[in-house]
Write a structure and sequence with these properties.
The chain has 254 residues and is of the alpha/beta class. It is 39% helix and 19% strand. The protein has one domain: TIM Barrel, CATH 3.20.20.30. The chain has an 8-stranded mixed β-barrel, surrounded by 4 helices. Strand 7, helix 6 and strand 8 form a beta-alpha-beta unit. It is globular, with a radius of gyration of 19 Å.
Length: 254
Amino acid sequence: MVEIGPAVTRGGSRAGDTRQRIPLVVVAKLAIMIEGQEGVDWRLWKHLAQTVEGLGFDSFWRSDHLYSVMGEYDRDTIECWTSLALIATWTSRIPFGANVSPMTFREPGVLARTAASVDLLSEGRLVMGVGAGWYESEHNEFGVPFPSLKERMDRMDASFETMRSVWETRNPRPTRGTIPFLVGGGGERRTLRAVARHASLWSMGGKLPVDDYRHKVEVLEQRCGEVGRDPGEIRPDGPVPLPAARRRLDGEIE
């Protein structure tokens, strides 16, 4: 996952240093996202968390699903929020979070309490990833209600204020007083409005052709204009799938 941010230039030299310094332009931050339901066990999870931080990546993310999204239903799956609590204790620098947690799985107020605990464990590094939910079969298999798209979007829209209220009024409170939101999805009518209103980060959740991605960014800019927000405050991602990475890591730690 490549998180795309505004360009930052760095230059200048120390006193007495006559060498010319070439400005560094930072246009992207490299992050890693793992599909935690695709054959990951706890031993591999610890290895991944410590390796991602040790190699200097900017952040670490995982999906929140109950079983494989690739049709391999016998694969090991590690529960999302348990795994995030472990990242909080196994790492010390990187921001991390779910990309994203469906609001169909957990009541927003209860999830806010869980998120506050994980944020405190990490000393303020958690990002709260929020989505409406899309994977109907896992809901059916695990007895989780899967309402209409409108109801799921309504539930997601309401969750932001519910979670903020919990963080602002109930102890223990998050390290920063609140937790930044990542919103997942590219729906132009409702999802991008939610991104404009609430998100610090935006995840499309899949790789798009360049023209399609550019169009989504333009729509987001329009939605930001509607609510009076600077789109530069929102950091988008650009996912780059690496399906061979898991096989190499498996071999490395055997």
